[in-house]
Amino acid sequence: MIKVSVMYPNSPGAKFDTEYYKNTHLPMIAQTLGDALKGLEFNLGLGGRVPSEPAPYIALAHLTFDSLESFQATFGPNAKKFAADVPNYTNVQGEIQISEIVKYSYGV
Q1: How far, in Å, CA of 103 to CA of 33, rounded?
Q2: For the CA atoms of 61, 66, 68, 70, what is the dihedral angle to 10 degrees?
Q3: Where in this chain does the record put each EthD domain (predicted)?
Q4: Which among 33, 65, 79, 80 would be 20 to 30 A from 106, CA to CA?
């Protein structure tokens, strides 16, 4: 299983329309990707490493897929559609990381 993380860096002047992202953009992504998308999580940054430090990211979205091939087969053909919607909710360039999900048990 893999996780695709889209991270929107926080910086002075950054804008991010949380309601649009949550109510329009993410549902469009989920509908377009269909059954290939196994999970979707949306996180809003609250703070950084120390108290009163701003969060390094305004928002993060995590999408899970069975495999890298499944992600590429469904996301790739729709990447332009997804990118065209970005100016509707942010002026920030999102960073993308694709990770393998590794199960770990710590004494449980």
Answers
A1: 25
A2: -100
A3: 18-90
A4: 65
Domains of the chain (ranges, CATH numbers): 2-100 (3.30.70.100)
Specify the residue for token string 């120390």.
50
Q: Indicate the burial class of 75 (C-beta count within 10 angstroms; 0-12, 13-18, 19 or more).
A: buried
pTM: 0.91
Helix %, strand %, coil % for the chain, to 5? 35, 30, 30
- In this prediction, residue 108 carries a pLDDT of 64
Residue with tokens 């053909």: 77
Angstrom distance (rounded) from CA 26 to CA 45: 17
Pair of tokens at residue 80: 């332009």
Cα distance between residue 101 and residue 62, in whole Å: 12
